[in-house]
Amino acid sequence: MNFTNFGKYILLLKAVFRRPEKTKIYVKAIFQQMDFIGVGSLGLISIISTFIGAVMTLQIAFQLVSDLIPKTIIGSVNRDSSILELSPTISAIVLAGKIGSAISSEIGTMRVTEQIDALEIMGINAPGYLILPKILAGITMVPILVIISMVLSIGGGYLGGTLSGAISAAEYIQGITTDFNPYTIVVALTKAFVFGFIITSVPAYEGFYVKGGALEVAQASTRAVVVSCISILACDYLVTQLLL
Amino acid sequence: MIEIKDIHKSFGDNEVLKGISGIFREGVTNLIIGGSGSGKTTLLKCMIGLHQPEQGSVLYDDREFTQLNFQERIEIRKEIGMLFQGSALFDSMTVEENIMFPLNMFTEQSRSEKLDRANFCLERVNLEGKNKLFPAELSGGMKKRVGIARAIAMNPKYLFCDEPNSGLDPKTSIVIDELIKELTEEYNTTTIVVTHDMNSVMGIGDYIIFLHEGKKFWEGSNKEISKTDIAELNDFVFASRFMKAAKGKL
């Protein structure tokens, strides 16, 4: 995104947060989007998180081959990595691909088929009607998905570690319960909130300003995923730097 | 009544509209005609606020539209119905939901009242019983008719139609044209139709503006159009073999 695009993005957000015409209709749209973003992504996030947790445990066990380091460390490292980085960031990148491309192509198609013009002619604030429910659903559901991801990732680590014999169940549980700092959850949820905003607003922006036809909608969709992923990684660094 | 005064619009260095003026009265079908790239759709978009003209004004019953901000325009937009070239129906909604959408957004009517209005509009465009179909399940002509039904749902004072016959067979085109004319006369709306279809011009053109290279070249009625000696207009009107053959009889 260059500076012109960034300016347009800010102006679009200004229009998005105008007072809704009819709150009842917006509330219904928010719940529909929460279903799409949250419930619709639950299966994918669950599979990815469980496997990442399991693989992480195996890799940590492989790297910590020393009699001086207790095996409980495997659980601690897996827990902190999952909470602080893997669950929020990997979930966000996966969601940027799944949700981001869907949002961009939905809004982009509405643009090229004049559906957005139709909304505007009716006197409806099109950015607000189309984008606000998605952003509100994103910043609500992505943190919930990240919490589920954390639990499943740590659970996946337990399964991976115990089934392979890399660590015993007692050692793993001792590891994940030792020296737990609840502040890491705050950091992770802050990240999830920011990522939820990026995953919904950036693709919406790319779709909203599409010009042309099917080819341009596809290009906007690709651009939406790329820009969202880069923005997620940049914000990941910023939030980590600010909060830790 | 809608009045446009000296509308200028450019895209970069390309000046698309070069000072268009005109008065569109209520109760008659007003047509904006011209070849491809003559600026018809751009003029329409300037009139409804999808494009901002660099110069000139658009007056809806003496209310200056171009100088209004987004919030102020909403009141006038509630009085506008628009039929788009591609119908622009909302894909995710059924026919009934499409028609009820503006009512949901801007009225406090009960669900049964809105449903009655949707059914009335569907009946008006001869699509009774198609309430639960999605746009993807409709033919081109049916989509246009649903587009008209949605456009009239709020009882508009102003009705805009962008190429209502594009992509339709001649018989369906006539049905759409007649429907637009009937609604205009029945509800006394100020109707503006952008078209390059000569059947529409001859059939429903009560008042016609002819655009050529961004300028207004001619204005008059469908009865006068075949009797002009303006070369550009004659080239447009009598471009087809059929119209050339019919020239002597008009």
Protein model, in words:
Chain A: One of its GO terms (molecular function) is phospholipid transporter activity. The complex is a heterodimer of chains A (244) and B (250). Chain A contains eight helices and no strands. Chain A is an all-alpha fold. Chain A has one domain (22-243). The model of chain A has no long low-confidence stretch (mean pLDDT 95). Chain B is globular, with a radius of gyration of 18 Å. The mean pLDDT of chain B is 91. In chain B, the strands form two sheets. Chain B has a six-stranded mixed β-sheet, with helices on both faces. Chain B has a four-stranded antiparallel β-sheet with strand order 2-1-4-5, covered by helices on one side. In chain B, helix 6 packs parallel to helix 7 (198-204). Classes of the chains: A mainly alpha (244), B alpha/beta (250). Chains A and B meet through helix 4 of A and helix 2 and helix 3 of B.
Labels describing this entry:
heterodimer, A: about 240 residues, mainly alpha, about 0% strand, B: about 250 residues, alpha/beta, Rossmann fold, 2 domains, six-stranded mixed sheet, four-stranded antiparallel sheet, 9 helices, about 40% helix, about 25% strand, Permease_MalE (chain A)
